[in-house]
Amino acid sequence: MTKNMGMVDRAIRAVVGLALIYWAIKGGPVWAWIGVVPLLTAAIGSCPAYSLIGVNTCPIAKK
Q1: Best CA proximity match to 38, nearest among 24, 59, 18, 8
Q2: Model-level pTM?
Q3: Contact between residue 2 and residue 47 where contact means Cβ atoms under 8 Å apart
Q4: Cβ within 8 Å of residue 1, ≥6 positions away
Q5: Number of C-alpha atoms within 13 angstroms, CB side, residue 23?
Q6: If you write DSSP's letter for every residue of 22-43 in order, what string do you get?
Q7: What is the pLDDT of residues 7-41, one digit of tens each?
């Protein structure tokens, strides 16, 4: 899987993912567990949705 996410994109996803998971743990709605998805995509550096629509925010992969 090729990387298609830049560092800023990955950082934002990680923060949002962690915030949603924290909210779910603290008694938030069940759907807040969806935070696992942005956290995992941030960890691997690749977003399947980006691949489908042709978006690439990774400066290294653009060469």
Answers
A1: 18
A2: 0.84
A3: no
A4: 44, 46
A5: 15
A6: HHHHTT--GGGGGGHHHHHHHH
A7: 999 999 999 999 999 999 999 999 999 999 999 99
**How long is the chain?**
63
Cα 26 to Cα 10, 40, 55, 59: the distances in Å are: 24, 20, 34, 37
Tokens describing residue 59: 């400066």
| Residue 21 token pair | 């998971």
Q: Which helix (H) or strand (E) holds 48?
A: helix 48-53
How far apart are the C-alpha atoms of 4 and 46, rounded to whole Å?
A: 5
For residue 62, the model assigns a pLDDT of: 54
